[in-house]
Structures are given as structure tokens and as C-alpha cells.
Amino acid sequence: MSMPAHARPFSSTPFGKNVRQKSLLIVFLGLFTLAGCVPPPVTIAPSAKNDSAITQVSIYSGFQTGLYDGDVTYAQLAQMGNFGLGTFNSLDGEMVALDGKFYQAKIDGSVQVVDPQMKTPFADVHFFHSQQQVQLNESLQNYDQLKAYLTKQLPSANRPYAFKITATFPTLKIRSVGKQNQPYPLLQDAVAQQTVFELQNITGTLVGYSMPDYLSGVSPTGYHFHFISADQQHAGHMLDCSLNAAMIEIDYLETVTLLIPQNAPFQEANFVPLPK
Fold it and tell me: How far apart are CA 115 and CA 21, in angstroms?
């Protein structure tokens, strides 16, 4: 398999029981030419164009420090996946993508279809393909119980997974954040000003991922979910929920493609190395 000179694949050993014997492939791609040059169209390595590949825009550790301006448009992001989550430049709300449609959940509670020319500083997307279906028929009282239930369904903790959970939620707590002004605050400080919405008996879908611990710093590890209601009137980052029944669909992911920003704020940032 040929790759661009700037792509650096790392393969690990095959994962888990009852899982196809393939290694996780991590591909690092530069997004654009250096700052000040005209950016060419985003191109994706052939290895990333499959149902088992997740594409991530930027790195989570950079996003946490306030790198909230990206160069990837949602028109370009839609070429990389029809399912996922993320945000918008200046941290202007929460993004959720389902069935090829991208939505913006604003801090005032409104939800709108994303303008394709809007840009993202951080997002995870892929083409969802359900490989495992689980019918939940028991009561889960909170997010911790949901995470524990999901973990029991997985063959290994050492690979990424995507989850599509469709249900009527007796209780649901979601949040959104507001557009930030420069100089941008740290993510923890911006989130401290979040608006929380508590909903009851609402039907919709949780869109999310679980990323393994060894991707810490690159991706948000553990479970991460955004919600979109069936009528597209409510959406946001999921903080807590309860469930009595649900259809849970799981997609096993084998490739992580990381798009590395080449803009000046990212390239000039001082990233602290992870301890060895």
C-alpha cells in the first residue's frame, strides 16, 4: 500500500477476540501548506477511505489549550465521514453528524443545519457501518451505568469504537458552549461557562466514540457522546442520561487518520511532551 511521504503509519498487534485480524493504523497528514500560502484542497490517504477509518481534525491536547481556529470546512469534512462529533471555529457550539447531515447546537438551545463553508478546529468523523447490534432491555440510571454496559459488549479496550444509540430517554442532560473571543481561554475555562439543558422523555440518537487510553493527548480517551433529537430541535454534548430500552449499534474502527493543522497558531504552539 503506497502512502504520501508525509504519512507515518504505526501498526500494533491485532485486537481482541472475534475481531478481524487487522492492525490499528494511525496516519498523520498535514492539512495545508504553511501559513501564508494558499491552502490546496484537503486530500485523504487511500487507507483512510473505508468504513473502518476515523478521521480526526487536530489533536485534543492542542484543543484543550485554546486552539479554536481551524482550516477544514464542513464541506471538506463531509468528504471524510457521515457520522461524528466536534465543534466550530471560536468554539461556537457543539457539532453532531448523523446520516450525512451536520448540525450545530448553539448555546441558546437552538439547532441549525451547518453551513458547508463553516470551519472546524476539532472533529471526529467516519462513515458509520453497524457491525454489532445490541438491544438494551434493562434500566440504566445514569451515564456511568451506560458506560459500564457498553464496555461489557466490547471484545477489547485497545481499539477505537463508534456508537449509535437510538432511544427514548427518560432523562437527558446536554450542554453547549458559546462563541469565544480572542485571546481564547483554556477549554476548561470556556466549558465552565456552558449552558446545560435537562430534558425528559425525549427521543433521539447518541452519536459517539470510545478511544483507547494510548491515544491520550491525541484524542479524548474513553467515551464521548453528542445527542440529536429525532425532530432535530435539541442537540448538544451529552453529560448524563437514563435509559430503559435502546438500540445500540457499534462500529469497530481500525484506522485513525490525524489531520495536523499547518496554520500559525498550531505550528507556533508550545506542546508539552508526554512523560515517558
Answer: 40
Residue-wise over 117-141: b if at least 16 C-beta within 10 A, else e? Answer: ebbbbbbbbbbbeebeebebeeebe
9, amino acid identity = P
The terminus-to-terminus CA distance of the chain in angstroms comes to 31
Q: Quick one: DSSP state of residue 120?
A: E
pLDDT tens digits, 176-193: 999 999 999 999 999 999
Give dist(CA 134, CA 152) in Å, integer: 11
pTM: 0.85
- The per-residue pLDDT for range 42-72, each reduced to its tens digit, is 444 433 456 789 999 999 999 999 999 999 9
User: SS3 for 241?
Assistant: strand
Mean pLDDT of 156-180: 98
Q: What is the pLDDT of residue 33?
A: 36
Nearest to 124 by CA among 91, 157, 82, 155: 82
**In the chain, what are the domain boundaries?**
10-128+255-267, 132-251
**CATH 3.30.1330.80 is right for the domain spanning 10-128+255-267:** yes
3-state secondary structure of 149: helix
Fold matches, 10-128+255-267 and 132-251: yes
Alpha-carbon distance of 105 to 165, in angstroms, equals 19
Which architecture does CATH list for 132-251?
A: 2-Layer Sandwich (3.30)
